[in-house]
Write a structure and sequence with these properties.
This protein is mostly helical and about 325 residues long. The protein is built from 10 helices and 7 strands. InterPro entries: dsRBD_dom (IPR014720), RNase_III_dom (IPR000999), RNase_III_sf (IPR036389).
Length: about 325
């Protein structure tokens, strides 16, 4: 992968053009408050080694942000593998990096209006909402909040259990003394044994506790439709940038000789068509990415046959010259 591809800076996400899923609620209100609470609210010092196992002051969203970051990375990685199984590992890593970057997550956080619920020290609140880091961390903490809330409250389904009464015979014969071949077996009289009281036939409803796998599935019902359109949009930008870099590298490398040979090709082609062609060659140019041009040269001879040449370069003039050069080669003018 070209190293400069790692320097790609995305434009703002066009979130208004996507159909994004609604924000799933966090049923646990105490957990929800913790999701929105910044460490500055309690004016707590940063936790050092001397407080390595002290969780008494764990009242902010730092640990939730840590967990949410991991779950989010796992979900997006699996999603990209499912969507683009043939995408190379390096490009998949680059795509994932853009999707879970602070810039992207901050935009998603603001889309869902999460910063408006931020709980922080009053003198720090404005700056925290303005920057991307804290706002992105808020989104990651919310991911963890959705996960843990579902583990505790998510599955409200119940299982109906109907107890089965034991099989208890009302009468049975008891052998007092047994002999393999008794002349006259001694048998006790029939004993009346008390019946076991049958269990109540009423059913009992038992709440089913969600598993961690079910909580992750619940989380992905939100994250997958959220990141699927974003992944397609970002991947397209990466492809355009990749093509631009290929052309740029070619101009600096092997195809620089082609650009040198193409000098004067437009004048030569125009001159030839003035005398022997049918009209003048046409040049159609269009943007290819943010700073590249693609030009197609279309020349029509006297018999009405059309000849085409196409090139992509960093300027419209270079692209037109190389496109004309390719048509000249077709005609044998050079």
């Amino acid at each position: 992968m070209a190293s400069s591809l790692l320097n790609l800076v995305l434009p703002p996400l066009p979130l208004d053009t996507f159909t994004l899923p609604p924000l799933p609620p966090i049923e646990d209100k105490a957990l929800e408050k913790k999701v929105y609470t910044h460490t500055s609210y309690h004016a707590l010092p940063r936790r050092g080694e001397e407080r390595f196992e002290d969780e008494a002051d764990n009242r902010d969203n730092e640990k939730l942000e840590h967990v949410g970051d991991s779950y989010l990375g796992c979900a997006v990685t699996a999603l990209l593998h499912d969507l683009y199984p043939n995408l190379k590992e390096g490009h998949a890593t680059l795509l994932k990096g853009h999707l879970v970057s602070n810039t992207t997550l901050a935009q998603l956080s603001r889309h869902y209006d999460l910063p408006s619920h931020l709980i922080a020290a009053p003198d720090a609140l404005y700056n925290l909402k303005s920057g991307d880091k804290t706002v992105a961390n808020l989104f990651e903490a919310y991911v963890a909040g959705v996960y843990y809330s579902y583990l505790k409250h998510g599955n409200t389904a119940t299982r109906r259990v109907v107890p089965t009464p034991p099989q208890t015979p009302s009468k049975r014969r008891v052998i007092v003394d047994e002999d393999p071949d008794p002349p006259s077996p001694v048998v006790s009289p029939t004993l009346e044994l008390p019946e076991h009281p049958s269990l109540s036939s009423a059913s009992e409803e038992v709440r089913v506790k969600p598993t961690r796998g079910q909580a992750m599935d619940h989380l992905e019902t939100w994250l997958r439709p959220l990141f699927t359109p974003l992944a397609a949009w970002v991947l397209q930008l990466i492809k355009v940038e990749y093509k631009r870099l290929e052309v740029s590298n070619a101009e600096r490398g092997g195809e620089s000789d082609l650009d040198e040979k193409a000098k004067g090709a437009m004048s030569r082609l125009n001159e030839w068509f003035i005398h022997k062609g049918k009209g003048m060659p046409e040049y159609q140019s269009s943007r290819s990415g943010s700073d590249m041009w693609t030009t197609q040269c279309i020349a029509t001879d006297k018999e009405g046959k059309q000849w085409f040449g196409e090139a992509t370069r960093s300027t419209k003039a270079k692209a037109s010259t190389v496109a004309a050069y390719k048509v000249c080669l077709e005609f044998g003018l050079l």
